[in-house]
Amino acid sequence: MEPTVLGIQEHPGAAPPGIAPSAGSCHDVRWAPRSVVSMDTPQDFSGRVAIVTGASRGLGKAAAARLLERGASVAINVRDPERADQVVAELGAGSFAIPGDIAADGVPEELVRRTLDRFGRVDILVNNAALPFTTRFERITTDEWRRAVDVNLTAPFLLMRAVLPAMKARRFGRVVNISSTAGRMVSTLGGAHYTATKTGLLGLTRAAAKELGVYGITVNAVCPGMIDTELTRETASAEQLELRL
Ligand SMILES: NC(=O)c1ccc[n+]([C@@H]2O[C@H](COP(=O)([O-])OP(=O)(O)OC[C@H]3O[C@@H](n4cnc5c(N)ncnc54)[C@H](OP(=O)(O)O)[C@@H]3O)[C@@H](O)[C@H]2O)c1
Hints:
8 strands; 6-stranded parallel β-sheet; alpha/beta; two-stranded antiparallel ribbon
């Protein structure tokens, strides 16, 4: 399904199912980016190479599809290797599967290394993957708190750090961190860990933007409100969904 914006407050859903192995299944053949770099219009991504994390569905998959439509080559990160191959088969030419749990040791660096092996460059990083935990404050365990921080905040930092040398070398980079209205205020349904990590991501975005602009790298965050994705359909109440109609 194509995500659409809902007219009500941001909501994260329940925790996704168990974590899949992080082994990659991409091939080691380098591909040239799809065509010569051209930025005639802001919507023209010809020749650009992007990484999108958590692209199995929802906003990540939609972002990957839009980038592909506009000429970019896209490294598709999905946790489960089989699902990653399915998504690439759906998205078609220019997409390339790099499965893995972004919170696992070495995976952020591996994701970037494989993108560079395949395409020789990386221009755009979309830090989309997140765990939308809804556990109420008094029930949040230390492990769940740490898991949220690892996936929602530490992994985006590690990915930004990993793409930096390649972006610096070309004096061009675009980092887009998917935060949330929860990061600007407080989540309606998400837990304290969700709100805290989405707020942290905004701080990370500001600090990185301040330091990396000098290299031609822009760092921005998007703060969606409630979007009609599979996740939302699975977790929002009928009443909440109704509010948009
Ligand atoms: N939908 C909304 O209303 C809304 C509002 C504000 C902000 N957002 C933000 O927008 C982003 C996308 O949301 P969505 O609605 O598209 O939700 P979603 O369908 O749950 O997408 C989240 C994606 O992140 C992936 N992911 C989670 N943990 C991962 C990990 N450790 N390694 C790799 N991938 C991982 C999930 O993969 P699996 O398929 O393997 O679980 C899934 O593909 C998130 O950052 C979310 O916080 C969404």
